[in-house]
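Allow me, if you will, to draw on your knowledge of protein folds for a short while. I have a record of one protein: its chain in single-letter code and its fold written as discrete structure tokens. The full record is reproduced below for your convenience:
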Amino acid sequence: MTGAAGDPVLRRAFVAGGLTAAGVASVALAVFGPGLWAALACHVLATFLCLPVLWRDRPAMALVAGASLTLGPLAGAVLLIALTGPGRALAAPGPEADDLPAGPAQSRVDRICAEIAEGRRPRPDAAPVPALAEIFVSGSLADQQTALAAMVRDYAPALRPALDRALASDIPAVRVQAAAVFAHLRDGYAARARALTHGTTGLTGEAHSAELAVVRGSGFVDPAPLDGVVTPAEPETHTRRENGGTGSGRRRAVRSAPA
């Protein structure tokens, strides 16, 4: 599921709200209707109808089952607070939890970016769509992942608005992958900026100027510290050629001199 239907928080809210409504109906049946057995049947039926919604959310499913057995019709109100309130007891797992490997956060970022760049996350038959920024508003999961793959391979400052759209995508899996791409690019440009300020790029002349312009305009670093960076001059290779030519001419003059 994608979008709202795939959001575990919304699924929990749906179940808690449904059980709350069923609890109110059960109390009404017990007080004003057929009696206690009808109220119990209503509560049990509502519980069995709601549990499949949480099939992939096992902790919440266990909590719902336990609360329904112990609290009866009051379970819905308690679950509404426990599952959806600001201090909810269980953190809602994202749909990306099965895809991310265990380990430090930085290794997860690198792993996700590598998978996107190598084409292991987008569908092989997904065709790229030109308007990247619009893809993250109305595109499918495959289209959005393909656009992220293009960003990892060939990022340019003009793609930053599209990346910001990806970070706000309606699809949770895309938001996670976009955050990994953002962190990967941010750390990469930060390292390149440090190399420029410390003079350890090994670049000179036009190559150094081009690197400086790319990093300054990336949108991931503060350009102010780069204002004082001086581009090293290219080595004067023509001087070595002139020296070599003078030496060869001198050798020819020595060989032609009479003994």
DSSP finds eleven helices and no strands in the chain.
